[in-house]
Write a structure and sequence with these properties.
Elements lengths: L4 H12 L14 E2 L2 H6 L1 H4 L3 E11 L2 E5 L10 E6 L27 H10 L2 E4 L2 E5 L1 E13 L3 E2 L7 E2 L14 E15 L3
Parallel strand pairs: 1-2, 4-10
Antiparallel strand pairs: 2-3, 2-7, 3-4, 5-6, 7-10, 8-9
Length: about 190
């Protein structure tokens, strides 16, 4: 029995991409989203590969996307972490869950090296400790992970996860992005 050409193409596509349906996109293609979409529905993206653009916050114990501009949110920030590879994280010190659960590899191409160089350009000034030289915005692609949150003790306005149960500094970030690729890097020098 001879199959029609369209049926042959569908069988071929299914054999090349297990789980793929002919005519649909590749399952591992990143989901393009915004920071506020991540903030308002972290469970929707949990465990998925996403591509998201935003300003990076970097400090002694901080490497995050801030979500403070997002009105409706379930997490307050997204801890950033490089995928597996020889490059060290740009924060000076942090603790918490620092072991990605799989082998997501960081692509350390020219764009990534520019990104890392801008992030770690620290100004050595007498009255300034941890004064970074650039404000960096970039599109980061990687695996997004989030844990459940509850109102923070005290004012109840923030979004807290169980102490140490999140990511980054003291496990205080309730979401993280394990970075696989960096694109579209824009850096502006900080005036001092």
């Amino acid at each position: 029995m001879k199959l029609p050409p369209l049926a042959v193409a569908a069988v071929f596509a299914a054999s090349v991409l297990p789980g793929a349906v002919f005519g649909q996109s590749v399952p591992n293609e990143p989901i393009k989203t915004t920071l506020c979409e991540l903030a308002s529905a972290p469970e929707r993206f949990n465990g998925r590969i996403v591509a998201v653009r935003g300003p990076i916050q970097i400090a002694f114990e901080n490497f995050t996307f801030s979500l403070s501009e997002c009105e409706s949110r379930k997490v307050d920030d997204v801890w950033l972490e490089y995928g597996r590879g020889p490059k060290q994280q740009p924060t000076t010190w942090c603790c918490g869950d620092m072991v990605p659960r799989d082998t997501l590899i960081l692509v350390q191409d020219k764009e990534f090296r520019r990104f890392h160089r801008y992030l770690t350009d620290e100004k050595k000034e007498r009255d300034c400790y941890n004064c970074y030289g650039f404000k960096v915005t970039a599109t980061l692609t990687g695996r997004f992970e989030a844990v459940d949150t509850q109102p923070c003790p005290g004012d109840g306005k923030g979004h807290c996860c169980e102490f140490g149960g999140g990511f980054g500094h003291f496990g205080a970030s309730c979401a993280r992005l394990v970075i696989q690729r960096v694109t579209g890097v824009v850096a502006k020098q900080v005036d001092r």
